[in-house]
């Protein structure tokens, strides 16, 4: 078994992507059936998962032809097919961990309402990663002339040094991709710690949104295995690279899904596991008009004018962890809020007051009706 890593490739890739797919399904269930709203980042995660399974499928076909075994134990036909399908799996693999970065950027742009500079930087990093990955794919298939010479499909040809691809891949993976994952994890934490909310909630939200930093470590470690692309025993030595490519992609996908799942967790466990509150989503009617997102910047449809420098955090009025200021609604003669509760036929309209202060001294007060306020987590 030491001389055959094929079973390990199949077991690792299938297990990792089954786990990733479970999280994606839970994410989609939460978005569609609990939040009643599916966003573009959800479709991007679906696309990344499709690329991941394409990577797994081609890796399995490569194993069937001998991938994971030493080259000298295979026939010439097996060597060619194993190398071809291994090479073919790489584009799907790198796209499966690049596309989720766009999903994270879309989510954070919607949640945090960043400034113009941060917005450009937030989207610029994923685009730079995608461009770099496309260049890697081009180098991969253009390093030999004709390309089929790489896997023995052509009797004659010439190739550039494999270290051209390796060096650029190290830049793309260990430097650019890892830095992007780290930035996308740290940036929301920086914003959250500037908000006047309970320290426990800050920690929980920062951990949930920053769990993508795990992908950073995986990307760096995977880059240490890229030298296998220059190995004379390519079919055997690239087995570990195939496995860690799947690991990086699934860790990124799972990290993208975890922050979205809290409404589902609250329904299943009846309390806020991450935030420590005792209230539950079960108390809400999800068939009402809801924004469908755990957005920090979204406060229903109350008509708030968001600016590039505005950072807001939606909350439920009455949450002891978040309420810190008195009501600013007009009082009636009895001292109660004039619009606190109104009855219209058989419908109840609830009014929530949202007050959030960001560290740049900007305070936003808004009034939210029809139970349209959503919490960050």
From TrEMBL:
Entry-linked Pfam families: Fung_rhodopsin
Database matches in InterPro entries: Rhodopsin_dom_fungi, SAT4-like
One Gene Ontology cellular component annotation held by this UniProt entry: membrane
Transmembrane segments: 6-30, 42-64, 84-108, 120-142, 170-192, 204-221
Rhodopsin domain residues: 26-266
Region entry Disordered, spans: 309-346
Intracellular or extracellular location(s): Membrane
Superkingdom to which the source organism belongs: Eukaryota
Membrane-related topology note: Multi-pass membrane protein
Compositionally biased tracts (Basic and acidic residues): 329-340
Sorted UniProt keywords: Membrane, Transmembrane, Transmembrane helix
Protein family (similarity comment): Belongs to the SAT4 family.
PANTHER family associated with the record: INTEGRAL MEMBRANE PROTEIN (PTHR33048:SF155), PTH11-LIKE INTEGRAL MEMBRANE PROTEIN (AFU_ORTHOLOGUE AFUA_5G11245) (PTHR33048)
Protein name: Rhodopsin domain-containing protein
Naturally occurring in which organism (per UniProt): Clonostachys solani
């Amino acid at each position: 078994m030491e001389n055959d890593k094929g079973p390990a490739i199949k077991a690792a890739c299938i297990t990792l992507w089954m786990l990733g797919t479970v999280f994606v399904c839970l994410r989609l269930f939460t978005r569609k059936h609990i939040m009643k709203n599916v966003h573009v980042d959800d479709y991007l995660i679906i696309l990344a998962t499709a690329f991941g399974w394409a990577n797994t499928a081609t890796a399995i076909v490569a194993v069937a032809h001998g991938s994971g075994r030493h080259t000298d134990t295979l026939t010439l036909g097996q060597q060619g097919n194993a190398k071809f399908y291994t090479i073919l799996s790489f584009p799907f693999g790198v796209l499966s961990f690049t596309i989720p970065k766009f999903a994270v950027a879309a989510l954070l742009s919607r949640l945090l309402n960043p400034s113009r500079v941060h917005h450009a930087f937030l989207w610029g990093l994923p685009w730079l990663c995608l461009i770099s990955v496309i260049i890697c794919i081009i180098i991969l298939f253009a390093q030999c002339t004709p390309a089929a010479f790489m896997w023995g499909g052509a009797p004659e040809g010439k190739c550039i040094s494999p270290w051209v691809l390796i060096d650029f891949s190290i830049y793309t993976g260990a430097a650019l991709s890892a830095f992007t994952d780290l930035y996308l994890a740290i940036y929301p934490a920086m914003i959250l710690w500037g908000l006047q909310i309970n320290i426990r909630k800050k920690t929980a939200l920062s951990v949930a949104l920053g769990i993508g930093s795990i992908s950073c470590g995986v990307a760096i470690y995977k880059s240490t295995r890229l030298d296998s692309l220059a190995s004379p025993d390519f079919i055997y030595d690239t087995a570990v690279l195939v496995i860690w490519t799947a690991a990086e992609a699934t860790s990124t996908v799972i990290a993208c899904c975890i922050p979205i799942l809290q409404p589902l967790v609250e329904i299943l466990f009846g309390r806020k596991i991450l935030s420590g509150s005792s209230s539950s989503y079960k108390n809400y009617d999800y068939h009402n008009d809801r924004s469908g997102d755990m957005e920090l910047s979204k406060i229903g449809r109350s008509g708030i004018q968001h600016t590039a420098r505005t950072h807001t955090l939606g909350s439920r009025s009455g949450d002891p962890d978040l309420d810190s200021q008195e009501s600013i609604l007009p009082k009636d003669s009895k001292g109660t809020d004039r619009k606190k509760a109104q009855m219209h036929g058989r419908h109840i309209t609830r009014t929530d007051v949202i007050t959030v202060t960001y560290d740049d001294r900007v305070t936003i007060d808004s009034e939210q009706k029809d139970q349209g306020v959503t919490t960050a987590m």
